[in-house]
Design goal:
By secondary structure, this protein is α/β, with parallel strands linked by helices. The chain has a single domain (about 5-290), classed as TIM Barrel (Alpha-Beta Barrel). It is built from 12 helices and 8 strands. It has helices spanning about 5-10, 25-35, 45-55, 65-75, 80-85, 90-100, 100-120, 130-140, 150-165, 195-205, 250-255, 275-290, and strands at about 20-25, 60-65, 125-130, 175-180, 210, 230, 245, 265-270. The protein has an 8-stranded parallel sheet with strand order 1-8-7-6-5-4-3-2. Strand 7, helix 11 and strand 8 form a beta-alpha-beta unit.
């Protein structure tokens, strides 16, 4: 078992091992596989892509973005969309998607290979769309763009995600990253309690829990026993009881100097898909030296 993400994050007394957290899959996929490239076609192909991407950026957190796996698998198995749309319940499409055995097997093989490549030198984090994000993605995939948002369906989605994660419980994961939609304000304030099935399974396996906020702030700050890190705009993180990732993406690519880090803070940056490689490396170096 790898170290928990919580043990590597900055706290009130120490800066921690994590200073720069990158969201880079779209950028590295385009750079290394070309426009329209798909590194998820086979586990071997993904591992070759991952090792190149990691060697190029050398991030403080190694992230495997699960949404890419499921998007790739659905693109290669379009008939499965009919099964996902067989019932009208809000959470049914995501239930059917996450029950599929082949993506689970691919993910387990990938995580085993990635952990072997990393050899514990960098924490391995599994990034997933948040329950209220992923349940909507699944509805749109089956043509239900106007499906009415259902808070109970979000909790059901968290339960199905927790079940899927049990299938990779032997993976040497340090933690989970749940990603909200950037424009999720229409869903109302974020009720993290709806994610309880996911939080419980993460705590059972001693995985740290982090949340990348969208435009809707939490209805209430989560407790430090539930969430180890919140990531977002500095203005949304005031009063957080845990480590916080300051999203400097806009300022970074505008050429502005990053703000100094306070106690329990680290930098978070999205790398745009079409960003120039030289600027990417220069910007990452700037964050490391700030």
């Amino acid at each position: 078992m790898s170290s928990s993400l919580a043990d590597l994050l900055p706290d009130a007394s120490e800066p921690g091992r994590i200073r720069v957290w990158l969201k880079s899959a779209e950028y590295t996929t385009r750079l290394l596989t070309g426009d329209g490239g798909d590194p998820w076609q086979t586990p071997a192909l993904y591992l070759a892509y991952f090792s190149q991407a990691h060697g190029l950026l050398r991030p403080d957190v190694a992230v495997v973005e699960v949404s890419g796996l499921y998007a790739s698998w659905l693109a290669r198995h379009p008939a499965y969309l009919d099964e996902m749309g067989a019932k009208r319940r809000f959470a049914f499409p995501i239930r059917k998607l996450l029950e599929a055995e082949e993506p689970r097997a691919i993910l387990a093989e990938v995580l085993d290979g990635v952990a072997g490549y990393l050899r514990g030198q960098v924490p391995l984090v599994l990034a997933l769309p948040s329950p209220r994000h992923w349940v909507q993605i699944a509805n749109r995939a089956v043509g239900r763009e106007e499906a009415e948002f259902d808070a109970d369906g979000v909790e059901d989605c968290a339960m199905y995600m927790a079940d899927m994660l049990r299938s990779v419980s032997q993976a040497k994961l340090a933690g989970l990253l749940l990603e909200e939609l950037p424009d999720d304000a229409d869903c109302g304030p974020l009720d993290i309690e709806r994610y309880r099935p996911l939080i419980n399974v993460a705590r059972h396996y001693r995985w740290g829990v982090s949340i990348l906020l969208g435009s809707a702030p939490p209805a209430a700050m989560p407790s430090a026993t539930d969430v180890d890190a919140l990531i977002g705009a500095a203005s949304d993180l005031a009063g957080a009881p845990c480590a916080t990732g300051i999203d400097v993406s806009d300022a970074l690519w505008a050429g502005e100097a990053p703000p100094p880090l306070g106690a329990r803070q680290f930098y978070f940056a999205r790398i745009p898909k079409t960003q120039h490689p030289e600027q990417v490396l220069e910007s990452i170096a700037l964050l490391r030296s700030a």
